[in-house]
Amino acid sequence: MALRSPLMNVMVTAAEKAGKALKRDFGEVEHLQVSRKGPSDFVSAADVKTEKFLVAELSKARPTFGFVNEEGGIVQGADPDHRWIIDPIDGTTNFLHGIPHFAMSIALQRGPEIIAGVVYNPITDDLFTAEKGMGAFHNNRRLRVSARRTLDDVLVGTGSPYKGRPGHKEFLEQCERVIAVTAGIRRFGTASLDLAFVAAGRYDGFWEMGLQPWDMAAGILLVTEAGGFVSDLMTPASPLDTGNILATNAELQVSLRKVILGTP
Ligand code: IPD
């Protein structure tokens, strides 16, 4: 059973409340008013509405905290140390295509550190939570990353760069190398849930280039609190700064990185 702090209760309550409306919107996905934000970056009315709701709920509980949001950008709070990092619908493309694999991602950052994270799919009612030093949970069941050590057996999640963004050739080369030596790859289209799957030991690893902080902030804490290892794919920098992430168990992190990057 997950022991939740009052802060985590606030986060879960906000996600579950927002999830009810989002579930209704998903049922009417064809009627949603959709606009295009960039080459492959859709934003829906539901996205904006959900974010506004989450901001209002979280602000009510912690009025001084700032925000880094997918839709609304950076909002400075009176408290310089705390900020929420929110993606109201991670997996927007799935949402717009009626695929019930998307999630709300809510993280709380204190200084440089992520201290709490919630990833919630309101359609399947899958709730993933983590607090710094308190473990990671899926609907109250404690999570642990996989123990697989041999590349032969591992299943690896990934994400492809959208059209109009760089790195397509590099990504395909990475996939080719990974497919050749592992049990397979998956591309489900929701980075926060991909990271939750690593935390749950469903995937043995996950990598992606060009992610935004709101796609991965909560998921990073899920993986580390489940005993996993998260790093930038190529450098010692934080993936929150570079957008290039590798998440896996400690045993695989060297061998998987080598395969992805094609280094000896
Ligand atoms: C996207 C998803 C997807 C990943 C993209 C992200 P969005 O987030 O996480 O899995 O491959 O890079 O942008 O746009 O649906 O919030």
List the helices and strands and how they pair.
Elements: H1 6-27, E1 34-38, E2 41-44, H2 45-61, E3 66-69, E4 73-75, E5 82-90, H3 92-96, E6 103-110, E7 113-121, E8 126-131, E9 135-138, E10 141-142, E11 155-159, H4 168-181, E12 184-186, H5 191-199, E13 205-208, H6 213-225, E14 229-232, H7 239-242, E15 245-248, H8 253-261
Parallel strand pairs: 3-5, 11-12, 11-13
Antiparallel strand pairs: 1-2, 3-4, 5-6, 6-7, 7-8, 8-9, 9-10, 13-15, 14-15
Helix pairs in contact: 1-2, 4-8, 5-6
The chain binds D-MYO-inositol-1-phosphate (IPD).
Residues 41, 70, 87, 90-93, 159, 189-191, 208, 211, 215 line the site of D-MYO-inositol-1-phosphate.
Brief account:
The chain has about 260 residues and is α+β, with helices and mostly antiparallel strands. The chain has helices spanning about 5-25, 45-60, 90-95, 170-180, 190-200, 215-225, 240, 255-260, and strands at about 35-40, 40-45, 65-70, 75, 80-90, 105-110, 115-120, 125-130, 135-140, 140, 155-160, 185, 205-210, 230, 245-250. It has 2 domains: about 5-140, 2-Layer Sandwich (Fructose-1,6-Bisphosphatase, Chain A, domain 1); about 150-260, D-Maltodextrin-Binding Protein, domain 2 (3-Layer(aba) Sandwich).
C-alpha end-to-end distance: 43 Å
Oligomer: single chain
Largest sheet: 8 strands, mixed
Can you say what the CATH homologous superfamily of the largest domain is? Fructose-1,6-Bisphosphatase, subunit A, domain 1
| Domain tally | 2
| CATH topology title of the largest domain | Fructose-1,6-Bisphosphatase, Chain A, domain 1
Would you count the extended β strands for me? Answer: 15
User: Unreliable runs, pLDDT <50, ≥5 residues?
Assistant: 32-43
- Radius of gyration from the CA trace? 18 Å
Proportion of β residues? 25-35%
Give the structural class: alpha+beta
Q: Mean pLDDT score, rounded?
A: 92
